[in-house]
Each structure stands twice: as structure tokens, then as C-alpha cells.
Amino acid sequence: EKDFFIARDVILQSAAKLVITITSNQFDSPFKSATTQDSKEAIISLPKSTFKTFAAITIVDVSSILIIPILVGIDFADIMIALQNSKGTACSVASTYQKSVEATKRLTHIQSTNFKEANSILAILSYSNPDLITLDDITNISGVISKNSNNNLNSFCWGCSYNKQLPTLFRLTILPVISDEEFPKYEI
Q1: 100 has a pLDDT exceeding 50
Q2: DSSP the chain
Q3: Taking a C-beta distance cutoff of 8 angstroms, is the pair 107, 174 a contact?
Q4: Which of 75, 14, 23, 32 has the alpha carbon at shortest distance from 52?
């Protein structure tokens, strides 16, 4: 544990523009996790029982929207606006395209408290067959997330990436986060 905090301090002092720290949730709410030390850090808390799986999914999906060809554009500045100086959680659901809206409704219902508390949301849709996803599908999924979220969101950023390695046809990872600042500051 001591090594983690030493490494974290070194990374936070580097020239990195955004650091996403993924921790095992030790609190009732991911928004009560340790406060961020620096405006360039996002602390994402995940349940202990599924930590390894969800940490891997979160890392792959956040990375993929920056490096894999995408249907809906998002860039590093968008991610920084949503995540900088924040704390929250990540949740994910996998499904077929035909059940993607139903799966999104189920996920937002299960995580409703986190969605209502969050003031920023980063949503990442990964798909394995680009011929089966449409902008209407993305709009419908986005509508479900928006309807079940805080009415005063500072930012709601979307990224959609093609991932032929997915064992399912569709995966949605959502990071509802809260920042102490009304509008997170960022510098590119």
C-alpha cells in the first residue's frame, strides 16, 4: 500500500495531463472516496468483488476511445473535461445490439444513485460489428443515460469505438463522476 502512494505521488508530479487512479471501493459511495490531490487526477472506485474485471474493462475502454477508430468523436480534451479533479465509479454492461437500450436501462437503474449524484459522465460504447450500430442506436442509449442522470450535468461526453475482440456485440462503460469544482479546469 505504501508503494502505491509513493508511485501515485511520482506520477502526479509528472507532466501527465490526466491521471486516472482506479481503486477498490472502501466506502458506501464512490463519491466519498479520498479527495483528489491535484486537478489532473480522477479517482474511480470499483467494488472489491469485481475489481479486477471492471478495472481491466475501464482501462481498455477509456484507452480505446483515444486510439481505436471511432464512430462518434471524442478527444483527450473531452475526457479531461469530464474526469479532471473528480471522483466516482465505473459501471459496464454487455449485450447484443437488439437489447442494448434495455441493457442500458437496467444498468442506469442499478446505478441510479451514482447517476443522480454525478455532475459529469463519460460514456464509452464499444461494438464488434460496425454494420449493426447506427446513430439512432447511440441516440437512444444516450437518451436513457441522460434521462436517468442529474439534471445539472456539467458535461456528458460520448465515445464509440470499434473493437473486433469483444466477445459480445456491444459493451457500454459509463463513468459517472463528481467534481468539487462547478466546471473542471483543464489545460491541453
Answers
A1: yes
A2: -HHHHHHHHHHHTSS-S-EEEEEE--SSSGGGSPPPSSTTEEEEEE-GGGHHHHHHHHHHHHHHHHHS-EEE---HHHHHHHHTTEEEE-EEEEE-GGGHHHHHHHHHHHTHHHHHH-SEEEEEEEES-TTT--HHHHHHHHHHHHHTS-TT-SEEEEEEEE-TT-SSSEEEEEEEEEESSSS-----
A3: yes
A4: 23
Separation of alpha carbons 132 and 164, rounded Å: 13
To the question of pTM greater than 0.85 for the whole model, the response is: no
pLDDT at 35: 53
Give the distance from CA 15 to its chain's centroid.
23
Report the candidate in 62, 54, 68 with the shortest Cα–Cα distance to residue 80. 62
Q: Which residues, in sequence order, are CB contacts of 24 under 8 Å at separation 6+?
A: 45, 46, 47, 48, 51
Confidence of residue 187 (pLDDT cuts 50, 70, 90): very low
Chain-centre distance of CA 135, in angstroms?
A: 20
CA distance 43 to 19: 8
Sequence-ordered list of residues with C-beta below 8 angstroms from that of 172, at least 6 positions apart, any chain: 92, 93, 94, 100, 103, 104, 107, 123, 124, 125, 126, 141
Q: Would strands 86-89 and 41-46 be described as parallel, antiparallel, or unpaired?
A: parallel
